[in-house]
Specification:
- The protein is an alpha+beta fold.
- The chain has a single domain, classed as 3-Layer(aba) Sandwich (NADH Oxidase).
- Helices cover 44% and strands 14% of the residues.
- The protein is built from 9 helices and 4 strands.
- The protein has a 4-stranded antiparallel sheet with strand order 1-2-4-3.
- The longest helix has 25 residues.
- The mean pLDDT is 97.
- Bound molecules: flavin mononucleotide.
- Flavin mononucleotide binds next to strand 3.
């Protein structure tokens, strides 16, 4: 599909076909395509939890204002934004740094400088760590949704859920914030998709 078609056709659909699944290979392709997203220093401070089990989805739905799409969609992704993704010792940061060294872009003795830089930018306060995690996880989430559209699937992002209760129910470690859930699947046959909502124009978006 042309990218412009993806931009237009991606919609947050409300009704998923509960009888049509998303197999493991397809989900893997979507996640790995989505992971092409940019991130600060390529630190990729995000993880996913994948929900397929009907009982788990039912428990999640209860904490997500009873939104039917949580159980109708064959797959629900929980996006986890890693507030510790800028810290020395963080598994992903360590891999990124090793990659920089292997590619010749950094010397091993530049690590202290590197983690000092990320701490200076993202570790100044809880707010800066939260912003770091959420902006990067948000870009990843968008990339995932476009990747799903590219593979012929539909999605629905949701932040309508009880954050604290979801973290507790699913034992999510404290370092993670959950910016959104993403339901993925196929449009239910015959389901109505509302006309695309109003969007700001260029003049409304660009400030003087
Ligand atoms: C971060 C985020 C959270 C959202 N949370 C919900 C939600 O909990 N429930 C819901 O029905 N829609 C939710 N939406 C969907 C929006 O209402 C929808 O994207 C918007 O109206 C634009 O429609 P479109 O995506 O079809 O273009 C959310 C969208 C985003 C980006």
């Amino acid at each position: 599909m042309e990218f412009n078609d993806i931009l237009i056709k991606r919609r947050a659909i409300n009704h998923f076909d509960p009888n049509k699944g998303v197999d493991e290979a397809l989900l893997k392709a979507i996640i790995e395509d989505g992971a092409k997203a940019p991130s600060s220093y390529n630190l990729q401070p995000y993880k996913l939890k994948v929900f397929r089990d009907p009982d788990e989805k039912a428990a999640l739905r209860k904490l997500a204002f009873d939104q039917p799409k949580v159980t109708e969609a064959p797959v629900v992704l929980m996006v986890l934004a890693d507030r510790d993704g800028w810290k020395e010792g963080n598994e992903t940061l360590e891999k990124v740094f090793t990659g920089f060294v292997d590619a010749g872009g950094m010397q091993p003795d530049q690590k202290e400088w590197f983690v000092g830089t990320t701490a200076g930018l993202y570790g100044q306060s809880d707010e800066s760590a939260q912003a770091f995690a959420n902006k990067n996880a948000g870009l990843f989430a968008m990339s995932l949704m476009y990747a799903a559209s590219h593979h012929g699937l539909h999605t629905h992002p949701m932040d309508g859920f009880d954050h604290a209760a979801v973290k507790m129910e699913f034992n999510i470690p404290d370092q993670y914030w959950i910016p959104m859930l993403i339901a993925i699947g196929h449009l239910k046959p015959g389901a109505e998709v509302y006309p695309k909502g109003w969007r700001q124009s260029y003049d409304e978006i660009v400030l003087d």
